[in-house]
Fold each of these.
Amino acid sequence: MTELSRPTHPATGVHPRRKILVTSALPYANGAIHLGHLVEYIQTDIWVRYQRLRDHSVVYVCADDTHGTPIMLRAEKEGISPETLIDRVWHEHTRDFAGFGISFDQYYSTHSPENRTLSEQIYERLKANGLIEIRRIEQMYDPAKEMFLPDRFIKGECPKCGAQDQYGDSCEACGATYGPTDLKNPRSVVSGSSPIRKESDHYFFRLSDPRCLEFLRQWAITDERLQPEASNKLKEWLGDSDADQGGLSDWDISRDAPYFGFEIPGAPGKYFYVWLDAPIGYYASLKKYCDGHGLSFEAFTAPDSDVEQYHFIGKDILYFHTLFWPAMLKFSGFRTPTNVFAHGFLTVDGAKMSKSRGTFITGQSYLDQQLNPEWLRYYFAAKLNGTMEDLDLNLSDFIARINSDLVGKYVNIASRSAGFITKRFEGRLDSSVLNDLGHPLHTAMMSAAQDMAEAYEHRDTARVVREATALMDRINTYVDSEKPWEIAKQAVQDPQLMPRLHEVCSRALRAFAQLTILLKPILPFTAQRVEQEIFGLDKPLGWADLAGPPISEIKGFSHLMTRVERDRIDALIAANRESLG
């Protein structure tokens, strides 16, 4: 099973300049951004930055997911309006994302006029296509709060094993799944009262319609666009023949008042379920971006659009993004996703993130401890391989890897060579070295660049990091073997050795510039400092500069990165543990 391939130029085999729309899953506006979230945003941002580095046209959009009962209840508890709450959280989220270098072109909110308009439009088109159905259903109702209760707002005894204090949809003790009406001795989490059963009309998207099944089998399975693990899951859900109809169920897309969200047209007191308008928020954010930049929204979203559309998500929301979302788009007249890329979950020191242990680490607490965000970007990159495997943040390994790779190898290349150039050659690099394309070091860099480009494209940043560290070792080995410090000493007595010193240090610094280009998607802040503070460039380095970085001098050497100290990591854990109080 392979991911959907991209067209190449028939003569050269080179990919033409691509037009790409990229999204990350929308964070819910009911809590802080934590390191588990950042796995996805860092992965997406690295891929986006790589595509931009290749001079492709990329629009990267996202938004806060702002609707639903939890938002409504939290705002009520704080004595503020939901609008005030989501505005505050939006500013917190955008602050945290900026701190980790996440380069959104548009970061918006699902509580927007664009999202309301698009949600209503898609709903009306699905309705016109016979894919919306009204059914009377029975739900649990809180008589004290006068509201229907979502599954997670009901607790009671598991109907299978009798475990206490279990949610209304599944048991954490025995793993059983069930409906909230099956729960024994249920109580409302909102008010503590005993819920009653009550009927209500609900609106369903008919995902079980044969048209949806036929389309999804083609899009998800026949076209072989998804990751193998995702494709296998889709086969379970869709079946692979007319005799095997899979397990698709119709989707309840409505909720009853009171509810914070968009009211369904022509249905007073009925609201779109948050998962209906949340993915449409991708397009709403895109619409906001297009309107602000004089671009055609339809050029991105029409069925015949030549813009590639990629969604990065966690594997826990695969069902929504590979079934509901493509079907909604298909049968409402929009283009369907080129691909959906899912990643695994984050553990810390081999265990689920824990507030009591201090390993449920927020992005802001990381930044507040003045820890370098690129340490985390690099470490996550070293762990992500384009699959749905979970990844572990081992804090001891984190310290060792950053200190070894980034400080001991990468930054060390420049620190070992820059001083000789500034002191002995007035900061000027050897032009003959910069134009030498036949040296083994240059050949190795260019060969590795091809492999790293393929790895970046397939989100296998673990391979990118392996290739990069091998290059770091090769460059440092070159410097070790040439011993510029010894040449410098001998050159005091024998000036004829000065050209050799000039050559060795210039060659190492050219390789350092090339390595910086290769790592730029992962280390954007450091790359910018290298460009400006070390080489004094007036424009950023691009992938096309690998063959001959446009460097001619160095302004000096700046200390690009410090070591990670264990006591700072311990302070981070303590800060997150203490925040519980």
Note: The CA atoms of residues 190 and 289 lie 38 Å apart.
Amino acid sequence: MKTDIEIAQEATLWPIEKVAETIGLTREELELYGNYKAKFSDEFINRVKDNPDGKLILVTAINPTPAGEGKTTITVGLGQAFGKLGKKAVIALREPSLGPCFGIKGGAAGGGMAQVVPMEDLNLHFTGDFHAITSANNLLAALLDNHIQQGNELRIDTRQITWKRCLDMNDRALRNIVIGLGKKTDGFVREDHFVITVASEIMAILCLSKDMDDLKDRLSKIIVAFDLDGNPVTAGMLKAVGSMAALLKDALKPNIIQTLEHTPALVHGGPFANIAHGCNSVRATHTALKIADYCITEAGFGADLGAEKFMDIKCRMSGLKPDVVVLVATIKALKYNGGVPKSEVSKPDMDALRKGIVNLEKHIENLQKFGVPVVVTLNKFITDTDDETNFVKDFCENMGADFALAEVWEKGGDGGIELANRVLQTLESKQSNFAPIYPLDISIEDKIKTICTEIYGAGDVVFEPAARKQMDTLTKLGFDNIPICMAKTQYSLSDNPALLGRPSNFTITVRDMYVSAGAGFIVVLTGDIMTMPGLPKQPAAYSIDVDKNGKITGLF
């Protein structure tokens, strides 16, 4: 059996100009990065901005196993299937982080016959967007420390510096560090921290900005520290906005590549959903809606994380409204949620399936609370039995959700025809009455409790002293009227990755929170979630190599 990278390397790609022609772009409206990837020019985005919107299809998933459940694969395959049906569709994805690529999860280009290509470029440096974000983030950190070194005119309290450096790589040794050691000219000694680039506020800002003016306005509002009187110190006060924006000028433009079947794919931005808001850029999604009849986009990890943030943060800030949600599940993950070890999930086990399907049940209920029609799809594996598949189908339909099988990994667009037809039927027969799960004018605490009880199913929420102190401070500063971005494990509805299925009467522990004032939300840290992941004992990096001809192997 061929690996994903072998399938991608053997594919015949169209020149990106030809792919762009199918959605109305001219050569002059592209900024080429080689033969198979490009960025949209601002002129093109402005030209199509008044076009009517197509239909917005969100793809999300149940709580995944550590290997993931094929959400991106389904997104890509569904876009290819729409093409097979003669529909004008564009997919809108996030860019992959190097962290999981060299860690445990692998890349994020889809899989099998449902991939976006060039796969190696996408999973590695792509068009340099993440490097630009990393550079802008760390420029702000350097300007902050330099300001303190050069006399500290803003009277920054070095004990209350909140801005962290970043790196797009899993590196646990950088979570907590000390900087400024050495001579007097080497800076003030203080504790510092790193986050992974996909958790940087700059990433969130880039993904939520409408244009350059909006980007600069958001950058100016970033809170980097507090002064000796407890007042916020911002990036604007440090005179950092212009230079940061210059680094981000090209990164703000959406990227276009293609699927294995030449469906246009806009891939732009990539915040993690377990520690950030988990959605691709507003600019890419809006542009996709203007140039196609159907935009198929995805939100990271399970629906309790990515989809909730898509609805409550991205849609609220951008005016987007999903017309239908595709909820991805696998028989393997349902049995995993039923208590079967990961090594045994390929074996038939109806008892475990019955126990684990409550996880799917909760996600269907949650999505229905947002007023959006739901289509459940099973990402089919060869080990799935007809009895297992029929059980899931009947379960979903009894809950008022439509259902379809997907075999896109094996068959590409042809394997997504059933799903595509089901989505089209749902769009025609069911109206979306989308609304966020909570209003903005309730307290920070009530917003957090609403997410924890309504979406996660928690019985209680406990705030540790540090979190409660921060909540009081943010309220006094006037940040009590913005959305919440929960940082939580992706493997469970709770904040404990070991609690699988549909746990009940559990307690969510909020240990800390901070405001991302430029992004416009409050990040709430729960459980043991880390903003800088570490590498596993056997990182995927061990298997990645490149030969003398430049051919990469081991990437997946």
Note: Residues 9 and 510 are 45 Å apart (CA to CA).
Amino acid sequence: MSKFNNKKIIPRYSFIAILMTIAGVAVIIKATYIMTVKHDYWMDVAKQKKFDSISVAPARGNILSDKGELMASTLPEYKMYMDFMVGGKEKDSLWNAKLDSICMGLHQIFPEKSETEFREHLEEGHKEMKRHWPIWPLRVDYNTFTKVRKLPIFNLSTLKGGFHYEENNARRQPFGSLAKRTIGDMYGAKDSAQYGLELSFDSILRGRSGLTHKRKVMNHFLNIVDTPPTDGDDIVTTINVQMQDIAEKATAEELELINGDVGVAIVMEVATGDVKAIVNLEKCGDGKYRERKNHAVSDLLEPGSVFKTASVMVALDDGVVDTTYKVNTGNGQMKMHGSMMNDHNRASGGYGTITLGRALQVSSNIGISYAIDEHYKNNPSRFTDGLHRIGIDEDFKIPIKGASPARIKHPSDKVNGQSVWYQTTLPWMSIGYESQVPPISTLAFYNAIANNGKMMRPRFVKKIVREGEVIKEYPPVVERAQICKPTTLKKVQKLLEQVVTHGTGKKARSESFAIAGKTGTAQISKGRGGYKSGAMRYLVSFAGYFPADNPRYSCIVCLQKTGLPASGGTMSGWVFHNIAEGIMAHSLNVDASSARDTVGMLQPIIQPGHLKATNLVLGHLGFQTRQKWDSQVLMSEQDWGSVGFNNGEYLLHKQDITNDNIMPDVLGMGIRDAMYLLESKGLRVQVTGRGKIVSQSPYAGTKINKGETCSLKLQL
């Protein structure tokens, strides 16, 4: 017999089951009602209580100079708003009482807008009870934000006063426009990089965003971090702030003086290839010069006569000519394959017969182009292969958008099946036309000459730093261990020094240290219009290095201008001079204790001459000398020779100057030495002026006859 009374218990369970079923059905009906009819209402409520998966922007990394100075940094900026719905009647009465003080304070912070204008603007938002009414239309920095935050009502909590804000990261450059096109910039509203290193290293600088969500608890929103953001890393560039400032000022001054269109200047450290300064100034519509394009790495223009050094190097390296190879340049005009080749001094009668070395010194188009055409016209590929061998068209993989390697024609090149190589291509290419070379490539070539033939890749970034710790380095990269034979290099180095001392680059010369380089002046082609459509535009350049006897820096200056006069030596050479002297002066040791240190003394440039007089002068200057002949044989007044330098002492070499019938180079000499040398060869000497010899006729390297007259021009 069951001990449970089923008749009593079953009805009870049935009743409970029915109640639970009814409740369950009610829950389902209610849930369905909420999910359908009330869906939008409850979604709005949810939005006010919680915010999920909110992206948290990381702090962008800094861009630093070579010394660690900030060149680009991220700073907070604020957009300020008022919520007129919060605070109730208490806030409204306070608002009416403090509105005058608020408007007065805003006017003092933002004087562009009057108190009346601020009142009208704020009253409009208050009348419409706006919840997100902008106090000021633009973003403001932290200092300005704190000033606004101290004003009446704005200093209350958000729930009481209604003042709230949006914080954004803004990119700032403490040195203003210094190297702006290379450092780069950001689209502020989009928080994306525009150009320069900002764009090239964007993934490193940007960092990674984090995720957070908000929950409303006790009328306060709490931020709950899901994934913390990873701030961007810093990059350390090779740019030197002082050198950049020197280069920009020197370039801007000359552009204003000559009414130039574009000015480019690059300074590179010889040993590493580090770009210490890079200037890209361009004339804008208001007549001011600003950086709008990175011309230094992207301008594919015909370089002009600075290219002649590459042509001479190829010819010397191939052994087809030497620096004493003679070219008859005539009266400064010569027809080559039906087109006229002109020298810059054709109006004064040209250079006549000169050596190849002299042709480079005075930048003779005929001298260089004739020598190249004569020895390569039957095999032009050998010349273009030589240009490739010395690295003038090397792709340096510059980390700046828009950068391009040089474009050098090859005899096999074709466009639409038609050859683009003509009989005139070779001679015109040899003097800097028919090729497109950006300034950075030209400078890298001259930097290799200064670096004893080692070509370095231009370096813009040295390392990546995270919280003070180096996480990646970009060491100097050697593109070519040797661009030419050592014997070729020595000849080219000497010629480049002579360009400055005896040639077209005298404006670049410094009285304090030796400079080597090459001038260039080229007409800028206007596409299909060629070189003769409208006002002629010119590219004037100077590329070289300093100090020539122990190169530390190489530099190129390229100026574009419309109309004459246009001179690479006079205009760009002077900018080079100012940059070089500014940089060297900045790096001088001003400690008086080192003033008489012979190690720190500048090595004098010594021309061949009377050895006894030379020995006497060097002795008075505190230099050690040693004669390279039998020490028992004393120096006489008639001993003539040259001076070398080795292991801290000057070596005196005797020379017999009477055995050949070749005109010596007396440029830069004093009249005493020049008279002795020329008369010992049986020449008569005619002198005008006073000082040092600046020109001679006949030119050095030409054949002479006894009794012939040599004209010398002297100048202080």
Note: The longest helix spans residues 6-36.
Amino acid sequence: MKKTITAVAFLALLSTCAYAQVKDSVKVNTLDEVVVSDTKFALRQEKSGKVISQITAKDLEKKSGQNLATVLSQIAGVEINGNQSANGKNLGYYLRGGKNRQVLILIDGIPVTDASGISLEYDLRLLPVEQIEKIEVMKGAASTLYGTGAATGIISITLKKGSKKALQSNAYMSIGSNNTSDNHKYNGQDFNQGISVNGSLDKVSYFAGLNSTETKGMSQIAAPTASQTYEPDSFSRQNLIGKLGYKVSNQITLDFFGTYDHIKNNFDFAYDNTGNDDTPINTTSSKQFRVGCSPKFSYNHGELNINSSFVKVTRDYNEYNTYTTTTDYSVFNSRSIIVDAFNKYAFSKQFFVVIGTEFQFHDMATNSPYSALEREKTKFNMVDPYATVVYNSKFGLNINAGGRLNIHSEYGNHWVYNINPSYNFKTNFPLKVLASYSTAYITPSLYQLYSEYGNTNLTPEESSTVEAGFETELLKNKLKVNAVGFYRDETNSFGFFYDSTTFQSYYINLNGKNKAKGIESEVAVTINSKIQLKGNYTFTQVDKALDRLIPKHKANATLNYQATPRTFVDLSYQYFDARIDAFFDGNTYVTQQVKLASYQLLNTTAKYELIKNRMTIFGAVTNIFNTNFSENIGYATRGRNFKLGFNILF
């Protein structure tokens, strides 16, 4: 409790100090920012009925050396569990108390997924942050616009594309340590490097990039005693991306893309805390191949977009079997086709309609010691027509409302809808109040239906969310504050059941309603042209059935200091409240719950522009006080670590 009070007090102190010290006239207007996630088209933030968190290209530049999971975990209402653990550790995505299956990931506006995964989720470990242009996070049910899987929010990632110059190149490299809190070998164990070429020639734009990451020196599982050590688990990643744009005319543009992402790492399980599973035999790899095309046609009063992609994912595992003392091999293959055609028509400057239809096809094939599944029997498709109406009045009222019909090959028809009013008060300072009611659904994954743990009697998970809040700017737009409260009901939530009598395990629908509620608040203060303070606080409370690895209280605070035009320093603080974890004990065959202690982290980054507009160098220190903490029971976390790097434009 004392640590919770400390975290909240720290944020309050930042806000109070900033309020007292604002002097310089620096205009920063959040409500003038443009967002896309709310309607799939560019819309001024003040006209949106949502508080949408944005991470711009400039924000990403200030976070040099951080991976995507760490960047996302600093947003209010977002927790990416595993971002402080070994690089190969699986990640958990939690938005507003929802888990991976309820969070939809978009890349360049297209949903991404692994159809053979447990929850139809995308693996964020595949994507290097250096290839990202910007990120939008919209929290709350978004199934009306984005379909199944968007029950608690979306993370929309925009990758980099060709610049306006004819030719521009970028090269970067970083080297860092990779230690736990009881290991002080600050030698190079974490390497990240890449290069890109991009530009525009007449009607053609292009972008090509290569990234490589290698990490070693740290075991995934934590040793139970200081005298015991486990073998280090390596992680490697290679990424290739190519994007090509062609402007056919002033009305028609064509954008093509292709990506290849490959990760490989050792893995260990911490289920019994004995280290029996600690072996270099345990290896896994994941290969993702994505191609697609996004044509756009602009016409008088409207715009037609078609986002299409084909995704193929292959995951394999070599795992040491402690019972047979042999190595088990498993391979999972999946294919997904997604086509989303949507049209915006503006009847006036205040009123427009978005109408679209999305098609999704997914299949999978697996071969493991426990089961073999063929594509012909393990597939489904969805066809979703949807419509959204947006009205922005001249006097301040904004309304966003819509509906979607999910036509599922296995589950028939299902409706979802939303109503999202907001109002901008015409006062001396911008003030927007907002409210919404949204329904959402999640269909079971192919794995949950057809795997060795599958249950074809599962029914879709349904939920409804109510939220209300405000967004404002004070002190001549130098103090920005927003706060949102939410309440969500879930029915037919997915769970996992182990029958101790028959020794069988399978997925089930949990009985009754499960609830989640919370508050998210953000504050940003520009003291002068050199100093900016940002902070956020999240309160999340969920029912016992959903309560795993979700901190009840979480806080982030950042001090940005532009010391000179070429020198930038930031200091960031994070507080994580106690969490409940659970693990299946392979010795007793009983699921046990453990309460993980709260912890606090302090990190810093410094950047210097060595050659103006050409070369930047940076240094970073994470977990400055070398705090020993746990993200997941039995798994290791990073202690104090250092990183150095550079970025060159030429």
Note: DSSP finds five helices and 37 strands in the chain.
